[in-house]
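Work Package 3 (structural annotation) set out to generate three-dimensional models for the target panel prioritized at the project kickoff. During this period the team completed the workflow that converts sequence records into discrete structure tokens, so that structures can be stored uniformly alongside our sequence database. As a representative example, we reproduce one entry of 204 residues exactly as it appears in the project archive.
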Amino acid sequence: MFIPAHYRNENISEVKQFLRENSFGILVSQVDGKPWATHIPLELDVDEKGNDILVSHIAKANPQWKQFLEQEEILCIFNGPHSYISSSWYQKEEVPTWNYIAVHVYGKLQILDEPAVLASMHKLVDKYEQNSECPVSINNLSAKTMRQIKGVVGFQIHITEIQAAKKMSQGREHDHPRIIEELEKQDPQAIAVAKVMKENSESR
């Protein structure tokens, strides 16, 4: 994606943490010559060699997987908080804009065997059940329920490139206090942007 230099986030530790916290992404590939996208959790992990990978699965009924091995490269898109920024919040006249965080991950896909798919499901469920009052464990599911694993295709994506954009009114630091104040009056997305802007200010 096109990222102006001053919005490019090259802090890989921060980007990885963003991927862990915003793992519901969009898997993009080609199906019969057309772009095809599936919305799924794509979990950041490492392979046996310590290389970064994304792990997930999709339904066998989804035709996207049938052309996985024909793809030279897969694209995964992750979005964070975003919000409209009114130029009425600036000290001087300017056009309005939008603040946002987005990450594109490119990689090569490998289909997993059933034991690896099951292991990835254990990790996925354990991650998201840890704050539940009555957490579900795959270990406790019946054999009948677990037969549903036959209906999915698991895969991992070996990451070849990460592109990260973090547009948070860079270059307008003198306007940040007012922008943050106004964002905190808006919807949850805008409030989340204000939180990121505050964190950026504190880290400078």
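The chain has a mean pLDDT of 95.
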